[in-house]
UniProtKB/TrEMBL annotation:
<dbReference type="GO" id="GO:0016020">
    <property type="term" value="C:membrane"/>
</dbReference>
<dbReference type="GO" id="GO:0015293">
    <property type="term" value="F:symporter activity"/>
</dbReference>
<keyword id="KW-0732">Signal</keyword>
<keyword id="KW-0769">Symport</keyword>
<feature type="transmembrane region" description="Helical">
    <location>
        <begin position="295"/>
        <end position="319"/>
    </location>
</feature>
<feature type="transmembrane region" description="Helical">
    <location>
        <begin position="252"/>
        <end position="274"/>
    </location>
</feature>
<comment type="similarity">
    <text>Belongs to the dicarboxylate/amino acid:cation symporter (DAACS) (TC 2.A.23) family.</text>
</comment>
<feature type="signal peptide">
    <location>
        <begin position="1"/>
        <end position="22"/>
    </location>
</feature>
<feature type="transmembrane region" description="Helical">
    <location>
        <begin position="220"/>
        <end position="246"/>
    </location>
</feature>
<protein>
    <recommendedName>
        <fullName>Amino acid transporter</fullName>
    </recommendedName>
</protein>
<dbReference type="InterPro" id="IPR036458">
    <property type="entry name" value="Na:dicarbo_symporter_sf"/>
</dbReference>
<dbReference type="InterPro" id="IPR001991">
    <property type="entry name" value="Na-dicarboxylate_symporter"/>
</dbReference>
<feature type="transmembrane region" description="Helical">
    <location>
        <begin position="331"/>
        <end position="359"/>
    </location>
</feature>
<dbReference type="Pfam" id="PF00375">
    <property type="entry name" value="SDF"/>
</dbReference>
<dbReference type="InterPro" id="IPR050746">
    <property type="entry name" value="DAACS"/>
</dbReference>
<feature type="transmembrane region" description="Helical">
    <location>
        <begin position="187"/>
        <end position="208"/>
    </location>
</feature>
<keyword id="KW-0472">Membrane</keyword>
Length: 430
């Protein structure tokens, strides 16, 4: 698992630069627009699925809160939704690319005690002063451990796009990153042999570390069931329909092709860790155009379908536990906020819980109740990660299918000549 995570950063850099340079976004901006449109549409679709399920199942029960409040104790702070979006913008354009390889920017809230004199009238002709202490919160920009994948992706996207507009001198740079990708594939083959052992060890370790597992799962079983139902509906029905409508092939055969990637993503709770295996399957088994895979898979950090589903279910689950009324306006706010916020989630385990904290303020829900989700997030995180992974895989197939003209970029010269009452057609490619 550590070897797979080790290759994430070089994989993202080499694949994204190679993909955007060979794709030449200046000529194929339609592919980029279609990709972003697909990402937003599927994220919104997952939000609507989660909304329908959580309102139907109604997993939130005040007794759950009372019975499970002592399971986990975490320092939960109120986080401003605006600060979250501002942090996403700061991480999008880091001021130091090397620092972005191991640190992210975030807004920290530091309590500050202010002292001031308050004037009090003791009598009609005299006044007195008293010292008043007031506690406020000061915002400070801090750095925390973790790769700023968003900033690196943005830089590589711009670098590759500009590189693709250059002349013949670009070939040497593209060839360099292509060789880097081939080297990483050979390194990957050694790591794959240890995948079964790694998967079993990670899952067993997580199960052992949870105290009172049966009690915790009993209290939050409906929440898990709602999430599982949403994941299965999206993977087994919605994605298959999307694939069949656009590609016109057997969708379940394509789905089973990504078995090793799904298992790796489930074990590590990170689709970035499964990215090397996903690339190999795309090239060798799925046979998807490399221009598409090297462009879509690295920027898949903004396509978090499972996270969008989780945010919606979690937010309304907390509202139901606290008997918070949700009208049409509040539901529309939840839908829009969860759709946008899911696209800023990091591809690391339990990153979505931070977004739930941010979104609690949109419906005036107590952020402290997010601590209830920590007890089962080790399992739910793995469910939503499989949705995140498959969303990228199916996006590659769909975008390739509707972008055949831009990918082939060919001009046909029709030369007809009779031969046994048949005509042969000669196609000359650019």
């Amino acid at each position: 698992m550590r070897v797979l995570k080790l290759m994430i950063l070089p994989f993202v850099i080499s694949c994204l630069i190679t993909g955007t340079a060979t794709l030449n976004i200046q000529k194929n901006r339609k592919i980029a627009i279609r990709t972003l449109t697909y990402f937003v549409s599927t994220s919104l679709l997952n939000v609507l699925i989660g909304l329908a399920l959580v309102l139907s199942f109604h997993p939130g029960d005040p007794t759950v809160k009372a019975g499970a409040a002592a399971v986990q104790s975490h320092d939960v702070r109120k986080v401003s939704l605006l600060d979250g979006f501002l942090d996403m913008g700061r991480n999008l354009v880091p001021d130091n690319l090397f620092q972005a390889a191991f640190e992210q920017t975030f807004t920290d809230y530091v309590p500050v005690t202010l002292k001031y004199n308050e004037v009090k009238n003791s009598t009609e002709n005299s006044t007195g002063f008293s010292i008043v202490h007031h506690t406020s919160v000061k915002r400070q920009l801090q750095f925390r451990e973790g790769t700023n994948t968003l900033g690196i992706i943005f830089f590589c996207l711009i670098f590759g796009s500009v590189l693709g507009t250059l002349g013949p001198q670009k070939d040497a740079v593209i060839k360099f990153f292509t060789v880097v990708y081939e080297v990483l594939l050979k390194m990957l083959m050694g790591a794959i042999w240890f995948t079964p052992v790694g998967v079993g060890s990670v899952i067993c370790g997580k199960i052992i570390s949870i105290g009172q597992l049966s009690h915790t799962l009993t209290q939050l079983s409906w929440f898990i069931a709602t999430m599982a139902a949403g994941v299965l509906i999206y993977q087994l029905i919605i994605l298959q329909l999307i694939y069949f409508i656009f590609v016109r092939k057997n969708p379940y055969k394509y789905y089973l092709t990504f078995g090793p990637s799904i298992v790796t993503a489930f074990a590590t709770a990170s689709k970035s860790a499964a990215m090397p295996i996903t690339f190999q399957i795309m090239d060798e088994k799925a046979k998807v155009d490399k221009q598409i895979t090297r462009f879509i898979l690295p920027i898949g950090t903004i396509n978090m379908d499972g996270t969008a589903l989780f945010l919606t279910v979690s937010l309304i689950f907390i509202a139901q536990m606290n008997n918070i009324y949700l009208g049409i306006g509040e539901i529309v706010t939840v839908v829009l906020s969860c759709t946008v916020a899911s696209m800023s989630s990091a591809t690391v385990p339990s990153a979505a819980l931070v977004l739930v904290l941010m979104l609690c303020s949109t419906i005036n829900a107590p952020a402290e109740d997010v601590s209830l989700l920590y007890a089962v997030d080790w399992f739910v995180d793995r469910l939503r990660t499989t949705n995140n992974l498959l969303g990228d895989c199916y996006a590659c197939a769909v975008i390739e299918s509707i972008s055949k003209k831009e990918l082939k970029n060919k001009s046909e010269v029709i030369i007809k000549f009779p031969c046994h009452h048949l005509f042969y057609v000669l196609t000359i490619y650019e």
